[in-house]
Design goal:
six-stranded mixed beta sheet; Rossmann fold; globular; binds ribulose-5-phosphate; Alpha-Beta Plaits
Length: 225
């Protein structure tokens, strides 16, 4: 089974959590694109979606769904999103698609976070995938120096020679070389650096459910209290 087939299998199972007339949170990335395609294919009868990126909003609208602002939605019952890495405790690194800040906000506003992923995302210890950090542009260099003090090797994210700009108008630092044995502590520490908008550790508010697809099927892993 190729990776796309696994992403699709996880995305299909996530539909079980989608209730008629609900306003749902929808994440960003290639795995979530399969989920959006499934919402469209099955003509899911949701009331509306709150999305974590312009890219996902565009796909949802093109599929006929209402996309509304979080400010107009109130608490969301579910948030469905992918991950770059996820542990057995359902702590994650996210932000490979530069949408981490909005992802964190929509996740925080949702009662249940359902992560959909293929088995390549499962790790014992977070940190092989470079940790994305969204920074206010004027603080880039200062934040990078602070991250070096924490033992990381930050790199300014570029695409085709230009700085990647997030949907919020900010820049991304990708931090390599961190073995993250205490993600909750590191998430808190990085949040306290002036100029950091959000970091890609989702440990304080991790996933509640992981739908993890492998060639043996989709395993449903629940967060243990
Ligand atoms: C985007 C994200 C994505 O959820 C993460 O990068 C996984 O993406 P993909 O499903 O394409 O592997 O955090 O900011």
């Amino acid at each position: 089974m190729d990776q796309n087939a696994l992403k699709l299998a996880a995305a299909k199972l996530a539909l079980d959590y989608v209730e008629d007339s609900a306003i749902i949170g929808v994440g960003t990335g290639s795995t979530i694109n399969f989920f959006i395609a499934e919402l469209i294919r099955t003509q899911a009868r949701i009331k509306a979606a709150v999305s974590s990126s312009v890219a996902s909003s565009d796909l949802l609208r093109a599929g006929g769904f209402d996309v509304i602002e979080l400010n107009d939605a109130g608490p969301l019952s579910i948030y469905v999103d992918g991950a770059d890495e996820i542990t057995r405790d359902l702590a994650m690194i996210k932000g490979g698609g530069a949408a981490l800040t909005r992802e964190k906000i929509v996740a925080a506003a949702s009662e249940k976070f359902i992560c959909i992923a293929d088995e390549s995302k499962r790790v014992d210890v977070l940190g092989k995938f470079a940790l994305p950090i969204e920074v206010i542009p004027m603080a880039r260099s200062f934040v990078a120096r602070e991250l070096v003090k924490l033992g990381g090797h930050p790199e300014w994210r570029m695409r085709e020679g230009k700085a990647v700009v997030t949907d919020n108008g900010n820049w991304i630092l990708d931090v390599r070389g961190m073995t993250i044995t205490n993600p909750v502590e590191l998430e808190t520490t990085i949040n306290q650096i002036a100029g950091v908008v959000a970091n890609g550790l989702f440990a304080r508010r991790g996933a509640d459910v992981l739908l993890l697809a492998s060639k043996n099927g989709v395993e449903c892993i629940l967060r243990t209290p």
